[in-house]
Amino acid sequence: MPNGRSKFEGSGIGLAICRKIATHHGGTITAKSVPQKGTTFIMTLPEKQQEPSS
């Protein structure tokens, strides 16, 4: 089974951008991988951001 890299083009920075967005908003991004099945990425964000303190 060939890997997915030959099927999809990209710059490879997508997950780095997602991680930066998640952490900026107080959240996380995780991955769950199953061999020969694929990988699921989960972004979790808080319901409401706290107001910045002055």
Q: Report the order of strands and helices.
A: HEE
Query: Poorly predicted ranges (pLDDT <50, ≥5 residues)?
Result: none
Helix content: 10-25%
Distance between the termini: 55 Å
Report on this model:
With 54 residues, the protein is α+β, with helices and mostly antiparallel strands. The chain has a domain at 12-44. 20% of the residues lie in helices and 26% in strands. A two-stranded antiparallel ribbon has the order 1-2. The chain is elongated.
In short:
The protein has 54 residues and is of the alpha+beta class. The chain has a domain at 12-44.
Secondary structure layout plus pairing:
Layout: H1 14-24, E1 28-34, E2 38-44
Antiparallel strand pairs: 1-2
Labels describing this entry:
1 helix, alpha+beta, 54 residues, 26% strand
